[in-house]
């Protein structure tokens, strides 16, 4: 059974930092990624990392967020946070046959 367990969300002031973690189990995953959804908006990709370490980022977070990975645990280090980064952050994992699995989400709130 596949499980993705996220942690690390919370309330932080603008300019601060947070680190999110997502531990996945039950399968080997090729790509792991972070997505976010703000109230009234569509879910969007924040950052992704492949099994070989290649990464890509949304333009809005480049230079501020860093995605990293240790086997089936993926991290999102967020710095210089802005109020517009406030959202529910979701972890997603994709296996070798392109099945996708989502975590339950963790709230990140950035106060101005």
- What is the rounded Rg? 13 Å
Q: Unreliable segments (pLDDT under 50, ≥5 consecutive)?
A: none
Shape: globular
Order of helices and strands: EEEEEEEEEEE
Largest sheet, described in full?
7 strands, mixed
Task: Report mean pLDDT, rounded to a whole number.
Answer: 96
Task: Tell me the span between the first and last alpha carbons.
Answer: 41 Å
| Share of residues in helices | under 10%
Tags for this entry?
112 residues, mainly beta, 7-stranded mixed sheet, 11 strands
Walk me through the structure.
It contains no helices and eleven strands. The protein has strands at 3-7, 10-13, 18-25, 29-37, 44-50, 55-57, 65-70, 73-78, 87-95, 100-102, 106-111. The strands form two sheets. Strands 2, 4, 5, 6, 9, 10 and 11 form a seven-stranded mixed beta sheet that branches. It has a four-stranded antiparallel beta sheet with strand order 1-3-8-7, with no helix packed on it. It is globular, with a radius of gyration of 13 Å.
Task: Please render the helix and strand layout as text.
Layout: E1 3-7, E2 10-13, E3 18-25, E4 29-37, E5 44-50, E6 55-57, E7 65-70, E8 73-78, E9 87-95, E10 100-102, E11 106-111
Parallel strand pairs: 2-11
Antiparallel strand pairs: 1-3, 3-8, 4-5, 4-9, 5-6, 7-8, 9-10, 9-11
């Amino acid at each position: 059974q596949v499980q993705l367990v996220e942690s690390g969300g919370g309330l932080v002031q603008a300019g601060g930092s947070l680190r999110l973690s997502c531990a996945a189990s039950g399968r080997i995953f090729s790509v792991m990624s972070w997505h976010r959804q703000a109230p009234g908006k569509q879910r969007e990709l924040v950052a992704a990392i492949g099994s070989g370490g290649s990464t890509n980022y949304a333009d809005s977070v480049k230079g501020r967020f860093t995605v990293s990975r240790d086997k089936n645990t993926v991290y999102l280090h967020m710095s210089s946070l802005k109020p517009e980064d406030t959202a529910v952050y979701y972890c997603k994992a994709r296996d070798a046959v392109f099945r996708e699995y989502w975590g339950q989400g963790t709230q990140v709130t950035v106060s101005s």
